C-alpha cells in the first residue's frame, strides 16, 4: 500500500542536540511538506518542497533545516537553535496537477526535549 | 493572507446527537475547502472536500457545503457515534494554486459519550 512513513514515532532529545526526523513516501508525489502541531494551535508550516533539490521556508522555519535529494524523501532536522522544539511533527505530500489540493499525511513524530 | 477560523473545543455530545462544527474562512478568489480528522496519536486523514461554491462534500455520514456568500464550510453529521471522537480540522487551499500547502484552523476536539 502506498503511503507516508515517518520515523521515529517518539524521540527524546537533550537540549543543545540536533535531531533528524525521517519522512519517506511511495506515492510518487512531487510535493512534500513539514508541519508542526502544538495543542490549541493547529498546524503550522515549517518547510515545503515542490521538486527535488528545491525547498522553501514556511511560516516557522527558524531553527529547522531540510533537504530534498530524492523525490521519496524529505528529512527534517530540528537544530539546537530551535527555542521550543517539543511538539508533534507531521509530514505530508501531494501530487502536482489534478489532485494537487489533497494532502496525504504520515502518522507523525513526537519530539520531547528533556 | 488566507485564514481559517473554527469553533473552539472541546465539544462534548451524547451518542446519536446531531453535530455541527462551524468553520469560516478568509481568502481571495475561490479556494478549495477541506475537513481533516485526527484520531489520537495519529496523522491527519482527509474526511471530505469541496472545490467550488455550493459543492457539498460528504463521507462516512459527515457533510459540509461550500457557502461562498457566508465564507463558511460547516461540518455536520446527523447521528454521531463514540468512534467519531477525534480532532477535526477545517482547511483551505488558495485559488492561486497554493504551492505552500493548506492553511489550517486550530482544530476542534470532539468527544462523544455513550
Task: Please give a structural write-up.
The complex is a heterodimer of chains A (114) and B (114). With 114 residues, chain A is mainly β. Chain A is 0% helix and 51% strand. In chain A, the strands form two sheets. In chain A, strands 2, 4, 5, 6, 9, 10 and 11 form a seven-stranded mixed sheet that branches. Chain A has a four-stranded antiparallel sheet with strand order 1-3-8-7, with no helix packed on it. In chain A, strand 4 and strand 5 form a beta hairpin. Chain A starts with a strand and ends with a strand. Chain B is mainly β and 114 residues long. Helix content of chain B is 0%, strand content 49%. Chain B has strands at residues 3-6, 11-14, 19-21, 23-26, 32-38, 44-50, 56-59, 62-65, 75-77, 86-93, 103-104, 108-113. In chain B, strand 5 and strand 6 form a beta hairpin. The radius of gyration of chain B is 14 Å and the shape is globular. The N and C termini of chain B lie far apart (41 Å). The mean pLDDT of chain B is 93.
Using the alpha-carbon principal axes, give the shape of chain B.
globular
Q: In terms of structural class, how would the helical and strand content of chain B be classed?
A: mainly beta
Percent range of helical residues of chain A? under 10%
Note the beta-strand portion of chain A.
Answer: over 45%
Structural class of chain A: mainly beta
Number of strands of chain A: 11
The tally of helices of chain A reads 0
Unreliable residue stretches of chain A: none
| Low-pLDDT residue intervals, each spanning 5 or more residues of chain B | none
Largest interface: A-B, 26 and 23 residues
Q: State the order of secondary-structure elements of chain A, H for helix, E for strand.
A: EEEEEEEEEEE
What is the oligomer described by this structure?
A: heterodimer
Q: Report the count of strand segments of chain B.
A: 12
Mean pLDDT of chain B: 93
Report how far the terminal alpha carbons of chain A are from each other.
36 Å
Give the DSSP E fraction of chain B (strand runs of 2 or more residues): over 45%
Task: Please tell me what the overall shape of chain A is.
Answer: globular
Question: Any idea what the radius of gyration of chain A is?
Answer: 13 Å
Give a short account of the largest sheet of chain B: 6 strands, mixed
Task: Specify the helix fraction band of chain B.
Answer: under 10%
The ordered string of helix (H) and strand (E) elements of chain B is: EEEEEEEEEEEE
Amino acid at each position: 500500500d502506498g503511503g507516508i512513513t515517518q520515523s521515529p514515532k517518539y524521540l527524546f532529545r537533550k537540549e543543545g542536540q540536533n535531531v533528524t526526523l525521517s519522512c519517506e513516501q511511495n506515492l510518487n508525489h512531487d510535493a512534500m511538506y513539514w508541519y508542526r502541531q502544538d495543542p490549541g494551535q493547529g498546524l503550522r508550516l515549517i518547510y515545503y518542497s515542490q521538486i527535488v533539490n528545491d525547498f522553501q521556508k514556511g511560516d516557522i522555519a527558524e531553527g529547522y533545516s531540510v533537504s530534498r535529494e530524492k523525490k521519496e524523501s524529505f528529512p527534517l532536522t530540528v537544530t539546537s537553535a530551535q527555542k521550543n522544539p517539543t511538539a508533534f511533527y507531521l509530514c505530508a505530500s501531494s501530487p502536482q496537477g489534478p489532485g494537487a489540493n489533497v494532502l496525504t499525511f504520515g502518522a507523525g513524530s513526537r519530539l520531547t526535549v528533556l | 493572507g488566507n485564514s481559517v477560523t473554527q469553533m473552539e473545543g472541546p465539544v462534548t455530545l451524547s451518542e446519536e446527537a446531531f453535530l455541527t462544527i462551524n468553520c469560516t474562512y478568509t481568502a481571495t478568489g475561490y479556494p478549495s475547502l477541506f475537513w481533516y480528522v485526527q484520531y489520537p496519536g495519529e496523522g491527519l486523514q482527509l474526511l471530505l472536500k469541496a472545490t467550488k461554491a455550493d459543492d457539498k462534500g460528504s463521507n462516512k455520514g459527515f457533510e459540509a457545503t461550500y457557502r461562498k456568500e457566508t465564507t463558511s464550510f460547516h461540518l455536520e453529521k446527523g447521528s454521531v457515534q463514540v468512534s467519531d471522537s477525534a480532532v477535526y480540522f477545517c482547511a483551505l487551499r488558495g485559488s492561486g494554486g497554493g504551492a505552500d500547502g493548506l492553511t489550517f484552523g486550530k482544530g476542534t476536539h470532539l468527544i462523544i459519550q455513550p
